[in-house]
Every structure is written in C-alpha cells, then in structure tokens.
Specification:
86 residues
Length: 86
C-alpha cells in the first residue's frame, strides 16, 4: 500500500460518513428550524418539544434507511479488507 491508496481510502471513508450522517442531520435540522419558527410564533418555549420531534425524525430515518446505511458500511469495510490483503 502506498500513500495514494491510503489517501483515497480515507477520502472514501469520509464520503461514506457524510452519506450516512447527512439524512439524519439535515432532516433533524429542518425539523428544528420549523419547530423554532412555530415556538416563536406561538410563544411556547418548551425544550422537550423540539427534542421529542428531532428524536422521532432520527429514529424514523434509522428505521427506514438502516439497511442501506449498513450496506454502505459493509461495502466500504470489504473494500478496505481487500486492499489490506493485497
């Protein structure tokens, strides 16, 4: 293994992390913004309200996309093991 291969695998690893984390982070951020607007309009300042909705969104995304996320991680790990063997 040379430096170029290691650099490429690190870049691919970062890309896999971004692909896996982005749906949860972006949707929870979107829900947080919507709830903040709702709380500002109605003057309800309850901290648990936003937490419960964000948690629900993240759990739903994990249930719906968990298989795809695991497939991406397995594919990346198999690629790493293949490169280590050679």
């Amino acid at each position: 293994m040379n430096t170029a291969v290691i650099t490429d695998m690190m870049q691919e690893g970062m890309w896999v992390v971004i692909q896996i984390a982005a749906p949860m982070l972006l949707l929870s951020m979107f829900v947080g913004i919507l709830l903040s607007i709702f709380q500002a309009v109605t003057q309800i300042h309850e901290q648990t309200l936003s937490f419960v909705f964000k948690l629900t969104v993240v759990v739903t995304i994990l249930l719906l996309n968990g298989g795809w996320m695991m497939d991406k991680l397995i594919e990346y790990t198999e690629t790493l093991y293949t490169l280590i063997r050679s």
